[in-house]
Amino acid sequence: MRRGNLFVISGPSGAGKGTLVQMVLPRVADAWLSVSATTRQPREGEVDGVHYQFLGEDEFSRLIDEDGLLEWACVHGCHYGTPKSTVLEHMNAGDQVILEIDVQGALQVKEIIPEAHLVFIAPPSMEELERRLRGRGTETEEKIALRMGNARHEMELRPKYDVCLTNDNLDECADALLAYIENKALETRY
Ligand code: 5GP
Q1: Ligand 1 centroid vs 185 CA: distance in angstroms?
Q2: Measured in angstroms, how far is the CA atom of residue 27 from the centroid of ligand 1?
Q3: Closest Cα to residue 11, out of 93, 92, 87, 124?
Q4: Cα(78)–Cα(89) distance, rounded to whole angstroms?
Q5: Nearest CA to ligand 1 atom 20
Q6: Is there an atom of ligand 1 within 6 Å of 63 CB?
Q7: Which of 102, 103, 153 to mutate to test the pocket of ligand 1 (most atoms within 8 A of CB)?
Q8: What pTM was estimated for this model as a whole?
Q9: d(CA 100, CA 106)
Q10: Mean pLDDT of 113-134
Q11: pLDDT averaged over the chain?
């Protein structure tokens, strides 16, 4: 049996981390993806409890007060946090736990759980990142500008990560992410 590991995947919004995680999840038998809590409004097609746990500001504050979050941060003007108990339960059960969270959260997790594996997903270039964000068609100009500003800051924090994968080609990047997870999981086999 493999021991539980914690993989924290971050990178600028639009770098493709969500798509990569969805490609890799079905290929890792014991993977489990954490569902974050957020105060952001659901986007079209997003389901409460599946994509996020959508909360009001009061409910989110209560979670913080109750020490229910492993980490939390304000990202693009909304609050996001990782529910603590489910993550610890799945790690203890021997799962490969995956968090898809921002850089502030990732660095908090590394402080609390130093064995966590931090993976940064970088876009091939900032121009390509902006093109992808526009292509989504879900964000206003103001939001795109905010996300590009945050992306520049996030890129500067790359050296704090254990590994950085550039998402130039989706299939190749997914293979690299899968290989990283499988290698780390094999290292911690009983
Ligand atoms: P989006 O609103 O596009 O789904 O996510 C915006 C950003 O919030 C992304 O960078 C995403 O990784 C990050 N995020 C999602 N969940 C969490 C979380 O639980 N904690 C932190 N710190 N960031 C999160």
Answers
A1: 24
A2: 23
A3: 124
A4: 27
A5: 81
A6: no
A7: 102
A8: 0.94
A9: 9
A10: 95
A11: 94
Q: In what order do the strands lie in the sheet with 163-166?
A: 31-33, 96-100, 5-10, 117-122, 163-166
Q: How far is the CA of 80 from the centre of ligand 1 (A)?
A: 6
3-state helix, strand, coil in the chain (%, to 5): 45, 25, 30
- List pLDDT tens digits, range 124-171: 999 999 998 898 777 889 989 988 999 999 999 999 999 999 999 999
Task: Compute the distance from residue 1 Cα to the ligand 1 centre, in Å.
Answer: 31
CA-nearest of 176, 127, 138 to 17 is 176
> H helices within the chain, ranges in order?
17-24, 57-65, 84-92, 103-112, 126-136, 141-156, 170-187
Cβ–ligand 1 contact at 69 (below 6 Å): no
How distant, in Å, are the alpha carbons of 130, 131, 141 from that of 25?
A: 26, 26, 32
* CB 104 near ligand 1, within 6 Å: yes
